[in-house]
Protein backbone atom coordinates (compact mmCIF):
# COMPACT_ATOMS: atom_id res chain seq x y z
CA UNK A 1 0.00 0.00 0.00
CA UNK A 2 1.24 3.49 -0.84
CA UNK A 3 0.44 6.79 0.84
CA UNK A 4 -1.68 7.69 -2.20
CA UNK A 5 -3.77 4.49 -2.29
CA UNK A 6 -6.99 6.36 -1.44
CA UNK A 7 -6.46 8.76 -4.32
CA UNK A 8 -5.85 5.85 -6.72
CA UNK A 9 -9.04 4.16 -5.50
CA UNK A 10 -10.98 7.35 -6.15
CA UNK A 11 -9.63 7.51 -9.69
CA UNK A 12 -10.46 3.83 -10.13
CA UNK A 13 -14.09 4.58 -9.21
CA UNK A 14 -14.16 7.32 -11.84
CA UNK A 15 -12.54 4.98 -14.34
CA UNK A 16 -15.18 2.30 -13.74
CA UNK A 17 -17.91 4.88 -14.35
CA UNK A 18 -16.89 5.69 -17.92
CA UNK A 19 -14.70 2.86 -19.22
CA UNK A 20 -15.96 1.84 -22.62
CA UNK A 21 -16.25 5.54 -23.49
CA UNK A 22 -13.60 8.23 -24.10
CA UNK A 23 -11.00 5.61 -25.17
CA UNK A 24 -8.04 8.01 -25.15
CA UNK A 25 -8.29 8.89 -21.48
CA UNK A 26 -9.44 5.37 -20.52
CA UNK A 27 -6.24 4.00 -22.03
CA UNK A 28 -4.05 6.34 -19.98
CA UNK A 29 -6.02 6.12 -16.74
CA UNK A 30 -6.01 2.33 -16.88
CA UNK A 31 -2.21 2.34 -16.75
CA UNK A 32 -2.20 4.72 -13.81
CA UNK A 33 -4.59 2.85 -11.51
CA UNK A 34 -2.78 -0.47 -11.83
CA UNK A 35 0.65 0.59 -10.59
CA UNK A 36 2.34 1.59 -7.37
CA UNK A 37 5.38 2.96 -9.18
CA UNK A 38 5.71 6.71 -8.53
CA UNK A 39 7.34 7.36 -11.90
CA UNK A 40 4.51 5.61 -13.75
CA UNK A 41 1.87 7.43 -11.68
CA UNK A 42 3.39 10.79 -12.59
CA UNK A 43 3.81 9.84 -16.25
CA UNK A 44 0.22 8.76 -16.76
CA UNK A 45 -1.23 11.57 -14.66
CA UNK A 46 0.37 13.95 -17.10
CA UNK A 47 -0.77 11.85 -20.05
CA UNK A 48 -4.37 12.03 -18.78
CA UNK A 49 -4.04 15.80 -18.56
CA UNK A 50 -2.55 15.88 -22.05
CA UNK A 51 -5.55 13.99 -23.49
CA UNK A 52 -7.99 16.42 -21.87
CA UNK A 53 -5.99 19.50 -22.85
CA UNK A 54 -5.65 18.30 -26.46
CA UNK A 55 -9.41 17.80 -26.69
CA UNK A 56 -10.10 21.24 -25.22
CA UNK A 57 -7.57 22.86 -27.52
CA UNK A 58 -9.10 21.36 -30.65
CA UNK A 59 -12.72 22.02 -29.55
CA UNK A 60 -12.66 25.18 -27.45
CA UNK A 61 -9.73 26.91 -29.14
CA UNK A 62 -10.66 25.58 -32.58
CA UNK A 63 -7.19 24.53 -33.66
CA UNK A 64 -4.94 21.42 -33.41
CA UNK A 65 -2.56 21.30 -30.49
CA UNK A 66 0.46 20.18 -32.54
CA UNK A 67 3.58 20.76 -30.42
CA UNK A 68 2.39 23.66 -28.27
CA UNK A 69 3.35 23.12 -24.60
CA UNK A 70 0.56 22.26 -22.16
CA UNK A 71 1.25 25.37 -20.10
CA UNK A 72 0.63 27.62 -23.07
CA UNK A 73 -2.71 25.97 -23.83
CA UNK A 74 -3.80 26.15 -20.19
CA UNK A 75 -2.99 29.87 -20.19
CA UNK A 76 -5.02 30.40 -23.39
CA UNK A 77 -7.99 28.48 -21.98
CA UNK A 78 -7.77 30.67 -18.90
CA UNK A 79 -7.46 33.98 -20.76
CA UNK A 80 -10.43 33.12 -22.98
CA UNK A 81 -12.42 31.88 -19.97
CA UNK A 82 -13.16 28.57 -21.64
CA UNK A 83 -12.60 26.57 -18.44
CA UNK A 84 -13.64 27.36 -14.83
CA UNK A 85 -10.90 29.04 -12.82
CA UNK A 86 -10.67 26.29 -10.17
CA UNK A 87 -10.08 23.72 -12.95
CA UNK A 88 -7.40 25.96 -14.46
CA UNK A 89 -5.71 26.04 -11.04
CA UNK A 90 -5.76 22.23 -10.82
CA UNK A 91 -4.39 21.92 -14.36
CA UNK A 92 -1.56 24.34 -13.64
CA UNK A 93 -0.72 22.54 -10.41
CA UNK A 94 -0.71 19.06 -12.01
CA UNK A 95 1.31 20.22 -15.00
CA UNK A 96 4.01 21.81 -12.83
CA UNK A 97 4.35 18.86 -10.43
CA UNK A 98 4.00 15.84 -12.74
CA UNK A 99 7.34 16.18 -14.48
CA UNK A 100 8.01 12.69 -15.78
CA UNK A 101 11.10 11.02 -17.27
CA UNK A 102 13.10 11.40 -14.07
CA UNK A 103 13.95 8.58 -11.73
CA UNK A 104 11.39 7.55 -9.06
CA UNK A 105 13.87 8.25 -6.28
CA UNK A 106 13.77 11.92 -7.28
CA UNK A 107 10.10 12.15 -6.31
CA UNK A 108 8.98 13.20 -2.88
CA UNK A 109 6.09 10.75 -2.18
CA UNK A 110 4.08 13.67 -0.84
CA UNK A 111 4.26 15.18 -4.31
CA UNK A 112 2.23 12.34 -5.83
CA UNK A 113 -0.90 12.82 -3.71
CA UNK A 114 -1.71 16.39 -4.82
CA UNK A 115 -1.15 15.39 -8.44
CA UNK A 116 -3.75 12.64 -8.12
CA UNK A 117 -6.17 14.88 -6.19
CA UNK A 118 -5.96 17.52 -8.92
CA UNK A 119 -6.36 14.88 -11.61
CA UNK A 120 -9.58 13.62 -9.99
CA UNK A 121 -10.94 17.19 -9.85
CA UNK A 122 -10.12 17.74 -13.52
CA UNK A 123 -11.62 14.42 -14.67
CA UNK A 124 -14.88 15.01 -12.74
CA UNK A 125 -15.29 18.38 -14.46
CA UNK A 126 -14.26 16.91 -17.81
CA UNK A 127 -16.93 14.20 -17.60
CA UNK A 128 -19.58 16.87 -17.05
CA UNK A 129 -18.11 18.86 -19.90
CA UNK A 130 -18.37 15.77 -22.15
CA UNK A 131 -21.91 15.18 -20.83
CA UNK A 132 -21.14 11.80 -19.21
CA UNK A 133 -22.69 10.37 -16.06
CA UNK A 134 -20.69 9.56 -12.93
CA UNK A 135 -22.38 6.52 -11.48
CA UNK A 136 -22.65 6.24 -7.68
CA UNK A 137 -22.90 2.70 -6.32
CA UNK A 138 -25.03 3.93 -3.41
CA UNK A 139 -27.81 5.48 -5.53
CA UNK A 140 -30.62 3.46 -7.06
CA UNK A 141 -30.56 3.26 -10.83
CA UNK A 142 -33.75 5.32 -11.13
CA UNK A 143 -32.05 8.33 -9.54
CA UNK A 144 -28.86 8.57 -11.52
CA UNK A 145 -27.96 12.23 -12.20
CA UNK A 146 -28.03 13.19 -15.85
CA UNK A 147 -25.87 16.23 -16.52
CA UNK A 148 -27.11 18.99 -18.79
CA UNK A 149 -24.46 21.20 -20.29
CA UNK A 150 -21.48 22.11 -18.09
CA UNK A 151 -23.23 22.88 -14.84
CA UNK A 152 -26.73 21.76 -13.89
CA UNK A 153 -28.12 18.27 -13.53
CA UNK A 154 -31.51 16.80 -12.75
CA UNK A 155 -32.87 13.42 -11.69
CA UNK A 156 -34.76 11.48 -14.30
CA UNK A 157 -36.23 8.01 -14.50
CA UNK A 158 -34.88 6.09 -17.49
CA UNK A 159 -37.56 4.97 -19.94
CA UNK A 160 -37.69 1.24 -20.80
CA UNK A 161 -38.10 1.95 -24.51
CA UNK A 162 -34.87 3.93 -24.58
CA UNK A 163 -33.10 1.08 -22.80
CA UNK A 164 -34.18 -1.34 -25.55
CA UNK A 165 -32.89 0.98 -28.23
CA UNK A 166 -29.57 1.28 -26.41
CA UNK A 167 -29.41 -2.50 -26.00
CA UNK A 168 -29.99 -3.17 -29.70
CA UNK A 169 -27.53 -0.44 -30.66
CA UNK A 170 -24.96 -1.99 -28.36
CA UNK A 171 -25.44 -5.43 -29.90
CA UNK A 172 -25.06 -4.08 -33.42
CA UNK A 173 -21.95 -2.12 -32.41
CA UNK A 174 -20.51 -5.21 -30.73
CA UNK A 175 -21.00 -7.31 -33.87
CA UNK A 176 -19.34 -4.61 -36.02
CA UNK A 177 -16.37 -4.44 -33.65
CA UNK A 178 -15.93 -8.22 -33.63
CA UNK A 179 -16.00 -8.40 -37.45
CA UNK A 180 -13.50 -5.50 -37.64
CA UNK A 181 -11.09 -7.15 -35.20
CA UNK A 182 -11.27 -10.55 -36.94
CA UNK A 183 -10.63 -8.99 -40.36
CA UNK A 184 -7.70 -6.98 -38.98
CA UNK A 185 -6.24 -10.12 -37.46
CA UNK A 186 -6.49 -12.01 -40.77
CA UNK A 187 -5.02 -9.11 -42.74
CA UNK A 188 -2.22 -8.71 -40.21
CA UNK A 189 -1.26 -12.38 -40.57
CA UNK A 190 -1.04 -12.03 -44.34
CA UNK A 191 0.63 -8.62 -44.31
CA UNK A 192 3.37 -9.45 -41.81
CA UNK A 193 3.83 -13.10 -42.77
CA UNK A 194 4.34 -14.28 -39.21
CA UNK A 195 6.18 -17.57 -39.05
CA UNK A 196 7.74 -19.91 -36.53
CA UNK A 197 11.47 -19.79 -35.83
CA UNK A 198 13.60 -22.14 -33.74
CA UNK A 199 15.41 -20.09 -31.10
CA UNK A 200 16.97 -23.02 -29.26
CA UNK A 201 16.54 -23.60 -25.52
CA UNK A 202 13.60 -25.83 -26.56
CA UNK A 203 11.70 -22.82 -27.93
CA UNK A 204 9.84 -22.34 -31.18
CA UNK A 205 8.86 -18.67 -31.34
CA UNK A 206 6.93 -16.70 -33.94
CA UNK A 207 8.35 -13.69 -35.73
CA UNK A 208 6.61 -10.78 -37.45
CA UNK A 209 7.87 -8.35 -40.06
CA UNK A 210 6.74 -4.81 -39.25
CA UNK A 211 7.97 -2.14 -41.65
CA UNK A 212 11.67 -2.76 -42.21
CA UNK A 213 12.08 -4.58 -38.89
CA UNK A 214 11.61 -8.23 -37.98
CA UNK A 215 10.48 -8.78 -34.37
CA UNK A 216 9.76 -11.70 -32.12
CA UNK A 217 5.98 -12.07 -31.98
CA UNK A 218 6.21 -13.51 -28.45
CA UNK A 219 7.92 -12.58 -25.20
CA UNK A 220 11.33 -14.16 -24.63
CA UNK A 221 11.36 -17.04 -22.16
CA UNK A 222 14.92 -18.40 -22.32
CA UNK A 223 16.75 -19.30 -19.11
CA UNK A 224 20.14 -19.47 -20.84
CA UNK A 225 22.34 -16.98 -22.65
CA UNK A 226 23.05 -17.67 -26.32
CA UNK A 227 26.44 -19.16 -25.42
CA UNK A 228 24.69 -21.83 -23.35
CA UNK A 229 25.51 -20.49 -19.89
CA UNK A 230 22.56 -20.37 -17.47
CA UNK A 231 21.01 -17.09 -16.32
CA UNK A 232 20.66 -16.84 -12.55
CA UNK A 233 17.13 -17.49 -11.26
CA UNK A 234 16.45 -15.18 -8.31
CA UNK A 235 13.26 -15.62 -6.30
CA UNK A 236 14.09 -13.83 -3.05
CA UNK A 237 12.50 -10.37 -2.92
CA UNK A 238 15.33 -8.62 -1.06
CA UNK A 239 18.05 -10.26 -3.15
CA UNK A 240 16.32 -9.22 -6.40
CA UNK A 241 15.92 -5.63 -5.18
CA UNK A 242 19.69 -5.32 -4.60
CA UNK A 243 21.00 -7.13 -7.68
CA UNK A 244 23.51 -5.59 -10.06
CA UNK A 245 24.14 -8.85 -11.95
CA UNK A 246 22.09 -10.68 -14.62
CA UNK A 247 18.98 -12.49 -13.38
CA UNK A 248 15.54 -13.73 -14.42
CA UNK A 249 12.36 -14.80 -12.65
CA UNK A 250 8.86 -16.07 -13.34
CA UNK A 251 5.93 -13.88 -12.34
CA UNK A 252 5.10 -14.41 -8.65
CA UNK A 253 7.89 -17.02 -8.66
CA UNK A 254 5.35 -19.50 -10.07
CA UNK A 255 7.43 -21.42 -12.60
CA UNK A 256 4.84 -24.18 -12.94
CA UNK A 257 2.22 -21.67 -14.09
CA UNK A 258 4.27 -19.26 -16.19
CA UNK A 259 7.27 -21.23 -17.52
CA UNK A 260 5.40 -22.39 -20.61
CA UNK A 261 2.96 -19.50 -20.82
CA UNK A 262 2.95 -16.79 -23.47
CA UNK A 263 3.67 -14.12 -20.85
CA UNK A 264 7.32 -15.14 -20.95
CA UNK A 265 10.13 -14.46 -18.49
CA UNK A 266 11.02 -11.29 -16.58
CA UNK A 267 14.66 -10.16 -16.79
CA UNK A 268 16.61 -7.38 -15.13
CA UNK A 269 18.54 -4.98 -17.35
CA UNK A 270 21.87 -6.50 -16.35
CA UNK A 271 20.83 -9.64 -18.25
CA UNK A 272 19.99 -7.45 -21.27
CA UNK A 273 23.34 -5.68 -21.08
CA UNK A 274 25.32 -8.91 -21.58
CA UNK A 275 24.39 -8.80 -25.30
CA UNK A 276 23.87 -12.56 -24.99
CA UNK A 277 20.20 -12.69 -24.05
CA UNK A 278 18.77 -12.96 -27.57
CA UNK A 279 19.57 -15.80 -29.98
CA UNK A 280 22.44 -15.34 -32.43
CA UNK A 281 21.33 -13.04 -35.23
CA UNK A 282 18.96 -11.14 -32.93
CA UNK A 283 19.36 -8.47 -30.26
CA UNK A 284 17.43 -6.56 -27.61
CA UNK A 285 16.21 -3.39 -29.37
CA UNK A 286 17.65 0.02 -28.61
CA UNK A 287 15.45 2.93 -27.56
CA UNK A 288 15.65 4.22 -31.14
CA UNK A 289 14.55 0.86 -32.57
CA UNK A 290 11.47 0.92 -30.33
CA UNK A 291 10.89 4.46 -31.63
CA UNK A 292 11.16 3.22 -35.22
CA UNK A 293 8.48 0.62 -34.50
CA UNK A 294 5.99 3.00 -32.91
CA UNK A 295 6.62 5.70 -35.52
CA UNK A 296 5.88 3.21 -38.30
CA UNK A 297 2.59 2.39 -36.57
CA UNK A 298 1.56 6.05 -36.21
CA UNK A 299 3.20 7.14 -32.94
CA UNK A 300 3.11 5.89 -29.36
CA UNK A 301 -0.47 6.89 -28.69
CA UNK A 302 -2.00 4.79 -31.49
CA UNK A 303 0.74 2.15 -31.81
CA UNK A 304 -0.16 0.50 -28.51
CA UNK A 305 -3.52 -0.70 -29.84
CA UNK A 306 -1.95 -1.96 -33.05
CA UNK A 307 0.61 -3.93 -31.03
CA UNK A 308 -1.64 -5.47 -28.36
CA UNK A 309 -3.12 -8.94 -28.65
CA UNK A 310 -6.88 -8.76 -29.06
CA UNK A 311 -9.48 -10.15 -26.68
CA UNK A 312 -9.24 -10.80 -22.95
CA UNK A 313 -7.43 -14.15 -22.88
CA UNK A 314 -4.31 -12.40 -21.61
CA UNK A 315 -5.27 -8.72 -21.31
CA UNK A 316 -7.89 -7.87 -18.71
CA UNK A 317 -11.04 -6.15 -19.93
CA UNK A 318 -11.57 -3.70 -21.60
CA UNK A 319 -8.31 -4.06 -23.60
CA UNK A 320 -9.05 -0.72 -25.24
CA UNK A 321 -8.24 -0.18 -28.94
CA UNK A 322 -6.47 -3.55 -29.31
CA UNK A 323 -6.34 -4.70 -32.96
CA UNK A 324 -2.90 -6.40 -33.19
CA UNK A 325 -2.86 -5.37 -36.84
CA UNK A 326 0.95 -5.33 -36.63
CA UNK A 327 1.16 -9.02 -35.69
CA UNK A 328 3.40 -8.09 -32.73
CA UNK A 329 0.96 -9.65 -30.21
CA UNK A 330 2.02 -7.60 -27.17
CA UNK A 331 1.15 -9.34 -23.90
CA UNK A 332 0.72 -7.94 -20.37
CA UNK A 333 3.47 -9.87 -18.58
CA UNK A 334 3.52 -7.45 -15.66
CA UNK A 335 6.80 -6.48 -14.04
CA UNK A 336 8.92 -6.81 -10.90
CA UNK A 337 9.99 -3.69 -9.00
CA UNK A 338 11.86 -3.63 -5.69
CA UNK A 339 11.41 -7.39 -5.66
CA UNK A 340 7.58 -7.22 -5.77
CA UNK A 341 5.44 -8.40 -8.68
CA UNK A 342 2.88 -6.08 -10.30
CA UNK A 343 0.17 -5.83 -12.95
CA UNK A 344 0.14 -9.08 -14.92
CA UNK A 345 -2.87 -8.91 -17.21
CA UNK A 346 -2.87 -5.11 -17.05
CA UNK A 347 0.54 -3.90 -18.21
CA UNK A 348 3.35 -4.95 -20.47
CA UNK A 349 6.84 -3.47 -20.09
CA UNK A 350 9.76 -4.37 -22.34
CA UNK A 351 13.43 -3.50 -21.95
CA UNK A 352 15.56 -1.63 -24.46
CA UNK A 353 19.33 -2.02 -24.51
CA UNK A 354 19.79 1.76 -24.13
CA UNK A 355 21.14 3.08 -20.84
CA UNK A 356 19.68 6.19 -19.22
CA UNK A 357 22.00 6.55 -16.21
CA UNK A 358 24.16 4.39 -13.95
CA UNK A 359 21.00 3.19 -12.18
CA UNK A 360 18.36 3.21 -14.90
CA UNK A 361 17.72 2.25 -18.53
CA UNK A 362 15.04 2.92 -21.12
CA UNK A 363 12.04 0.72 -21.81
CA UNK A 364 9.63 0.47 -24.75
CA UNK A 365 6.94 0.54 -26.18
CA UNK A 366 6.22 3.79 -24.39
CA UNK A 367 9.72 5.03 -23.76
CA UNK A 368 10.75 6.14 -20.30
CA UNK A 369 13.49 5.25 -17.84
CA UNK A 370 13.31 2.54 -15.19
CA UNK A 371 15.53 1.02 -12.53
CA UNK A 372 17.94 -1.52 -14.00
CA UNK A 373 16.99 -3.86 -11.15
CA UNK A 374 13.40 -4.03 -12.40
CA UNK A 375 12.13 -7.20 -14.04
CA UNK A 376 10.60 -6.58 -17.48
CA UNK A 377 9.66 -8.69 -20.49
CA UNK A 378 12.00 -8.84 -23.50
CA UNK A 379 11.36 -8.90 -27.23
CA UNK A 380 14.23 -9.44 -29.65
CA UNK A 381 14.57 -7.75 -33.03
CA UNK A 382 16.45 -9.30 -35.91
CA UNK A 383 19.87 -8.00 -36.90
CA UNK A 384 18.68 -6.22 -40.00
CA UNK A 385 20.15 -6.22 -43.48
CA UNK A 386 21.02 -3.21 -45.57
CA UNK A 387 20.78 -2.64 -49.28
CA UNK A 388 23.48 -0.50 -50.86
CA UNK A 389 23.12 1.54 -54.04
CA UNK A 390 24.54 -1.51 -55.84
CA UNK A 391 21.58 -3.64 -54.75
CA UNK A 392 23.66 -5.87 -52.49
CA UNK A 393 22.04 -7.11 -49.29
CA UNK A 394 24.37 -7.17 -46.30
CA UNK A 395 23.94 -8.87 -42.96
CA UNK A 396 24.62 -6.70 -39.92
CA UNK A 397 25.48 -7.34 -36.29
CA UNK A 398 25.32 -5.30 -33.10
CA UNK A 399 28.53 -5.49 -31.05
CA UNK A 400 28.51 -3.40 -27.89
CA UNK A 401 27.03 -0.04 -28.83
CA UNK A 402 28.08 -0.31 -32.48
CA UNK A 403 26.26 -1.88 -35.43
CA UNK A 404 28.59 -3.32 -38.09
CA UNK A 405 28.27 -4.96 -41.46
CA UNK A 406 28.82 -8.70 -40.99
CA UNK A 407 30.20 -8.96 -44.53
CA UNK A 408 32.89 -7.24 -46.58
CA UNK A 409 31.69 -4.44 -48.84
CA UNK A 410 31.30 -5.29 -52.53
CA UNK A 411 29.68 -2.25 -54.09
CA UNK A 412 30.89 -0.90 -57.44
CA UNK A 413 29.05 2.39 -57.02
CA UNK A 414 29.17 5.23 -54.53
CA UNK A 415 26.02 5.89 -52.53
CA UNK A 416 25.05 8.71 -54.89
CA UNK A 417 24.88 6.18 -57.73
CA UNK A 418 28.07 7.20 -59.54
CA UNK A 419 30.34 4.31 -60.61
CA UNK A 420 33.62 3.63 -58.83
CA UNK A 421 36.39 3.16 -61.42
CA UNK A 422 37.71 -0.39 -61.67
CA UNK A 423 41.47 -0.35 -62.26
CA UNK A 424 43.36 -3.32 -63.77
CA UNK A 425 46.57 -1.65 -64.97
CA UNK A 426 49.41 -2.18 -62.46
CA UNK A 427 51.11 1.16 -63.09
CA UNK A 428 47.91 3.18 -62.96
CA UNK A 429 46.86 1.38 -59.77
CA UNK A 430 50.12 2.28 -58.03
CA UNK A 431 50.31 5.89 -59.22
CA UNK A 432 46.66 6.81 -58.95
CA UNK A 433 45.43 9.20 -56.27
CA UNK A 434 41.80 8.86 -57.23
CA UNK A 435 39.19 6.30 -56.12
CA UNK A 436 39.40 2.77 -57.53
CA UNK A 437 38.45 -0.82 -56.75
CA UNK A 438 39.36 -4.33 -57.88
CA UNK A 439 38.21 -7.89 -57.17
CA UNK A 440 39.84 -9.66 -54.26
CA UNK A 441 39.89 -13.13 -55.81
CA UNK A 442 42.80 -14.08 -58.07
CA UNK A 443 40.08 -15.41 -60.35
CA UNK A 444 39.58 -11.88 -61.64
CA UNK A 445 36.10 -10.57 -62.13
CA UNK A 446 34.33 -12.72 -59.55
CA UNK A 447 33.77 -13.04 -55.84
CA UNK A 448 33.31 -16.78 -55.53
CA UNK A 449 34.52 -16.95 -51.94
CA UNK A 450 32.47 -13.98 -50.73
CA UNK A 451 35.50 -11.91 -49.71
CA UNK A 452 34.09 -8.75 -51.26
CA UNK A 453 36.00 -6.11 -53.22
CA UNK A 454 39.27 -4.31 -52.49
CA UNK A 455 39.30 -0.49 -52.49
CA UNK A 456 42.10 2.04 -52.34
CA UNK A 457 42.08 4.60 -49.55
CA UNK A 458 41.05 7.37 -51.96
CA UNK A 459 37.69 5.60 -52.47
CA UNK A 460 37.31 5.44 -48.69
CA UNK A 461 38.12 9.12 -48.33
CA UNK A 462 35.22 10.22 -50.54
CA UNK A 463 32.79 9.62 -47.66
CA UNK A 464 30.43 8.02 -50.22
CA UNK A 465 31.60 4.41 -50.22
CA UNK A 466 29.13 3.03 -47.65
CA UNK A 467 25.33 3.02 -48.00
CA UNK A 468 23.48 6.07 -46.66
CA UNK A 469 23.34 5.93 -42.87
CA UNK A 470 26.64 4.05 -42.68
CA UNK A 471 30.31 4.99 -42.92
CA UNK A 472 33.81 3.56 -43.08
CA UNK A 473 35.06 3.49 -39.47
CA UNK A 474 37.79 5.70 -38.14
CA UNK A 475 40.68 3.87 -36.48
CA UNK A 476 39.27 5.06 -33.16
CA UNK A 477 36.02 3.20 -33.96
CA UNK A 478 38.02 0.06 -34.73
CA UNK A 479 39.70 0.49 -31.34
CA UNK A 480 36.31 0.76 -29.61
CA UNK A 481 35.34 -2.57 -31.20
CA UNK A 482 38.63 -4.22 -30.21
CA UNK A 483 38.38 -2.91 -26.64
CA UNK A 484 34.82 -4.20 -26.27
CA UNK A 485 36.04 -7.66 -27.30
CA UNK A 486 38.81 -7.71 -24.70
CA UNK A 487 41.70 -5.91 -26.38
CA UNK A 488 44.17 -6.55 -29.18
CA UNK A 489 45.55 -9.76 -27.63
CA UNK A 490 42.28 -11.70 -27.92
CA UNK A 491 39.87 -9.79 -30.16
CA UNK A 492 41.10 -11.29 -33.45
CA UNK A 493 39.75 -14.75 -32.69
CA UNK A 494 36.40 -13.30 -31.61
CA UNK A 495 36.15 -11.49 -34.97
CA UNK A 496 37.33 -14.22 -37.36
CA UNK A 497 35.07 -16.57 -39.27
CA UNK A 498 35.62 -20.21 -38.30
CA UNK A 499 35.46 -21.82 -41.78
CA UNK A 500 37.21 -19.63 -44.40
CA UNK A 501 40.58 -19.13 -42.73
CA UNK A 502 43.30 -21.78 -43.28
CA UNK A 503 44.74 -23.86 -40.44
CA UNK A 504 45.58 -23.20 -37.69
CA UNK A 505 43.02 -20.33 -37.53
CA UNK A 506 44.20 -19.79 -33.97
CA UNK A 507 41.59 -18.82 -31.42
CA UNK A 508 38.83 -18.29 -34.00
CA UNK A 509 35.34 -18.40 -32.43
CA UNK A 510 33.49 -15.60 -34.25
CA UNK A 511 31.55 -15.11 -31.00
CA UNK A 512 31.05 -11.46 -31.93
CA UNK A 513 29.20 -12.38 -35.15
CA UNK A 514 31.52 -10.06 -37.11
CA UNK A 515 32.59 -12.92 -39.45
CA UNK A 516 35.95 -11.47 -40.53
CA UNK A 517 37.16 -12.97 -43.82
CA UNK A 518 40.73 -13.25 -45.21
CA UNK A 519 40.46 -10.96 -48.22
CA UNK A 520 44.17 -10.12 -48.26
CA UNK A 521 45.21 -6.97 -50.14
CA UNK A 522 46.37 -5.70 -53.54
CA UNK A 523 49.77 -4.06 -53.79
CA UNK A 524 51.48 -2.09 -56.55
CA UNK A 525 52.11 -5.11 -58.78
CA UNK A 526 48.44 -6.12 -58.83
CA UNK A 527 49.38 -9.27 -56.92
CA UNK A 528 46.73 -10.43 -54.50
CA UNK A 529 48.87 -10.83 -51.42
CA UNK A 530 47.76 -13.14 -48.61
CA UNK A 531 44.27 -13.67 -49.99
CA UNK A 532 42.85 -16.55 -47.96
CA UNK A 533 45.41 -16.06 -45.19
CA UNK A 534 45.16 -12.49 -43.87
CA UNK A 535 42.54 -9.79 -43.64
CA UNK A 536 43.01 -6.00 -43.84
CA UNK A 537 40.28 -3.38 -43.39
CA UNK A 538 40.64 0.32 -44.06
CA UNK A 539 39.86 3.07 -41.60
CA UNK A 540 39.30 6.72 -42.57
CA UNK A 541 42.29 7.74 -40.43
CA UNK A 542 45.47 8.80 -42.17
CA UNK A 543 48.86 7.58 -41.01
CA UNK A 544 50.70 10.28 -42.92
CA UNK A 545 50.76 11.79 -46.39
CA UNK A 546 51.07 8.41 -48.11
CA UNK A 547 49.62 5.96 -45.58
CA UNK A 548 46.18 5.09 -44.28
CA UNK A 549 45.57 3.16 -41.06
CA UNK A 550 43.89 -0.23 -41.05
CA UNK A 551 42.99 -3.25 -38.92
CA UNK A 552 45.01 -6.41 -39.57
CA UNK A 553 44.16 -10.07 -38.73
CA UNK A 554 46.13 -13.23 -39.52
CA UNK A 555 45.22 -16.92 -39.29
CA UNK A 556 48.01 -17.92 -36.89
CA UNK A 557 47.31 -15.40 -34.12
CA UNK A 558 44.25 -14.97 -31.91
CA UNK A 559 44.94 -11.27 -31.60
CA UNK A 560 44.45 -8.21 -33.80
CA UNK A 561 46.81 -5.47 -34.91
CA UNK A 562 46.76 -1.96 -36.22
CA UNK A 563 48.78 -1.33 -39.33
CA UNK A 564 49.59 1.26 -41.99
CA UNK A 565 49.39 0.65 -45.72
CA UNK A 566 50.06 2.80 -48.75
CA UNK A 567 46.94 4.65 -49.80
CA UNK A 568 47.01 3.04 -53.25
CA UNK A 569 46.81 -0.47 -51.74
CA UNK A 570 43.55 -2.35 -52.17
CA UNK A 571 42.04 -3.42 -48.82
CA UNK A 572 38.69 -4.77 -47.68
CA UNK A 573 36.08 -2.44 -46.18
CA UNK A 574 33.48 -2.89 -43.44
CA UNK A 575 30.90 -0.20 -42.75
CA UNK A 576 29.59 0.83 -39.33
CA UNK A 577 26.23 2.44 -38.70
CA UNK A 578 26.15 6.23 -38.18
Structural description of this entry:
This protein is an alpha+beta fold and about 575 residues long. Helix content is about 30%, strand content about 15%. It has three domains: about 5-140; about 190-380, no CATH class; about 385-575, no CATH class. The protein has a three-stranded antiparallel β-sheet with strand order 3-4-5, with no helix packed on it. A three-stranded antiparallel β-sheet has the order 11-12-13. Helix 2 (about 25-35) packs antiparallel against helix 3 (about 40-60) and helix 3 packs across helix 5 (about 85-95). Mean pLDDT is about 80; it is low at about 100-105, about 135-165 and about 185-200.
Number of helices: 16
Mean model confidence by pLDDT: 80
For the biggest β-sheet, the strand order reads: 3-4-5
- From the spread of the alpha carbons, the general shape counts as elongated
What is the subunit organization of this protein?
A: single chain
Number of domains: 3
Please indicate the percent range of residues in DSSP E strands (runs of 2 or more).
15-25%
Tell me roughly what share of residues is in helical segments. 25-40%
Would you report the number of β strands? 27
**Termini distance?**
47 Å
Low-confidence stretches: 101-105, 134-166, 185-200
> Mind summarizing the main beta sheet?
3 strands, antiparallel
Q: Which structural class fits the helix and strand makeup?
A: alpha+beta
Radius of gyration, CA atoms, in whole angstroms: 30 Å
Amino acid sequence: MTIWTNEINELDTLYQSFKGHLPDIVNELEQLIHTQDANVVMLYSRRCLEVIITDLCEVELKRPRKTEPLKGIIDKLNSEEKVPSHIITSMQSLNSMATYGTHPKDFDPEQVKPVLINLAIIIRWYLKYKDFQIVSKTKPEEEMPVSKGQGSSEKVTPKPKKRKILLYSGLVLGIVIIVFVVLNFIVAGIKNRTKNIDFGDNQIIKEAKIGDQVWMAENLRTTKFNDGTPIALVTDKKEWANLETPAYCWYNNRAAKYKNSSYGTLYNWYAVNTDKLCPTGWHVPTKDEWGTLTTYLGGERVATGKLKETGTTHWNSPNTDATNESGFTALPGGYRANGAFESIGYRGLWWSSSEYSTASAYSGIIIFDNEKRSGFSVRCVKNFTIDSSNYHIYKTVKIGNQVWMAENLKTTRFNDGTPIPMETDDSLWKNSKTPAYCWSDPDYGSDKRGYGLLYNWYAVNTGKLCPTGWHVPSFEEWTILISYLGGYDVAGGKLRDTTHWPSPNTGATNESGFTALPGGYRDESFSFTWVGDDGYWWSTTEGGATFGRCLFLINSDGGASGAGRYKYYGLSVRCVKD
